[in-house]
Amino acid sequence: MNRCIITVVGKDTVGIIARVCTYLADKNVNILDITQTIVSGYFNMMMIVDTGNVREDFHYLVSGLESLGEKIGVQIKCQREDIFEKMHRI
User: pLDDT of 23-56, one tens digit each?
Assistant: First the structure.
C-alpha cells in the first residue's frame, strides 16, 4: 500500500470536499480515512489515502492537487506517509 497524507486548508466554500474527492476518484486514489472541521469560516481537511492504483507519476498527482486547490481557493498539500511522519516526529 502506498499511503499519503493530503491536507486541504482555506476559506470554507460549497463543494470543496466534492471537488477534491472527485479528483482523487478520477485518479484511482482510494480514501482510507478523512476528517474535516470548519472553524470561524475556515475549512481544514486531512485525508489518508492509498495511491497504489494510481497510473501516473506521483509528482503529477501532487501538482494536479495543487492546481485544483488554486482553482477552488484552498491550499492542498500531498505527502507520502513516511515523509510526513519523519517531518512530524517529536
Answer: 999 999 999 999 999 999 999 999 999 999 999 9
Residue 61 backbone dihedrals phi, psi, to 5 degrees: -60, -45
Contact between 4 and 80 under an 8 Å Cβ cutoff? The reply is yes
Q: Are 3 and 50 in contact (CB under 8 A)?
A: yes
Q: Is 7 exposed, middle or buried (0-12, 13-18, 19+ CB in 10 A)?
A: middle
Could you list the beta-strand ranges (E) of 1-90: 3-11, 30-39, 42-50, 74-80
Close Cβ partners of 79 (under 8 Å, ≥ 6 residues apart): 4, 5, 87
Residue 32's φ and ψ, nearest 5 degrees, are: -95, -35
Which pTM was predicted?
A: 0.89
